[in-house]
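Data availability (excerpt). The following record was deposited with the supplementary files.
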Amino acid sequence: MLSASSGEAATLTADCPKRCKTFRMTKQALTCIAMLCVAGPAIAQDKPEGPVLPDETETTDVPLQPLDPAMPDAEGAQPSEPTTGAEPLPAAVDAGDATGDPSPESAAPADAEPDPPGRRTVLYQRMVTAIDEARYADAVEAARGVAQLTEQEFGPDSIELSSPLDNLATTLMLKGDLVDAEQAYLRSIAIIKQNEGQLSPRLINAQVGLGATYNRAGLYDKAEEAFSTALRLNNVNEGFYNLEQMKIRDGLTETYIGLEEIEEANFHQEVQLEIHQRRLGEDNPETAPAMYKLARWYERSGQVEQSRYMYQRAQQMIRRTYGKESLEMVAAYEGLAGTFERQGLVSESAGSLKKALKIIEAQPEIDRPKQAELLVQLGDLYGSSGRFDTAIAYYERAWQALSLESGYEDLREEFFSEPVRVTGLGWGNLRYAPGDVSDWNLLSDGYVLVRYDVSEKGRVKDVVVIESNPSDLMDRRVAEALRRSYFRPRFADGVAVVSEGLLYRHDFYYRPKDPGRSEDAGKPIEAPDDGGGRLEYPGASDG
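Predicted structure:
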């Protein structure tokens, strides 16, 4: 790994926290003022739960270790083209060793003939395909090949190598090899600084990837430093109100969730709306997607009233511009319904969904997928509140809507081919089992395998634990969680039917009550659980 620029990295970021803190405090104050002024064979599926704040995080400075990925920056990222001059985006590729250098076994001899033109492009396309198919080990191998060929052609310190190293680092991160990913990003950063200086815009991508890697490892202090550096570089190169900084601020939001600093997380979401409003105007309905994003963040973090307020603001703008029966109102009604449901206000939630459905069904050409989606949401809402017959009626209407025209069979299967768990205790709450031993070295995983039936009305019956390890440790809790769940039932030919012999395997960690001073005690076990709801951001076309 190159280390010549490590001192420059410290210089670059030494005064960043102070400057960024001043900027944050000023912008937070402005944001608050502005807001005040405006006023077996079958395994049942789980309906994605609403995102929640992580219940356990660690900020201890510990070595990186492979964890389950949960960062938005890597998802959907596209790798950089294997050519010169293009600024890389986080992608996926694997390096030969921890530094990103080619392994001795696979490196070509120094006097070998150059590979045929296009070999790097072939490997690059192989890497992209592997990422799309979630074959991260294959993506790593292909990315390693691109990096090796680039190094052979241009040299180990060439700027052309930075993009392949970023791609390699990202594939390593996706694969879970966080230590190697960190080293590949650091090597890319050193090369860029050596060739283009410490304010090069190329550094932004590598710093964002590095921050995402640290977030996955639970090293939130290091992640904050990396993302803050990326944000400073972005502002220096693109200005304070550019849209490219949204991903960086989302990364910082995830970091502050891990650090349990909710106000800092709030700021990095709120300032994104401010940026859109400065570009488009505060009362421009084209800012609605940014308002919805902020509303979803508020809901995710348990700030339900603030979430509802944002949806209501969006509704007011849309109503003034397009009218109350506009299709633009549908998304706002859906968002409002979610906030009411979160507080157990079933009638208010159903009312918002019905208003959205009325708008959809009043159109000259009805959007059948959207109509069915709203009907299913109503069914889920009523079913989870115990009104099973009403729920079934809405599900039947959804089935019929998707059967009136051809081409919607796949969506119909997605909704109704298997029972879908709609409500119940979140499985994340059963992530750890209690322990009664004092041996703090004991830290392993266990599981409970359960068989159960789901009635035609979505109720769970005949729950039987058929296997568990350790035996009897979590059996009762897992079985009870299933019994208290509500499922959207399976449908056949438009009719709800019983599903028998379903299997669910719940994996958990066996954690003693007193971990003592084990070196494992401060290490994160999993990346923050966002419940499946990642931060997303509206693109430039969305305003």
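Summary of structural features: Strands lie at 45-46, 420-423, 432-433, 444-454, 460-469, 486-488, 490-492, 495-497, 499-510.
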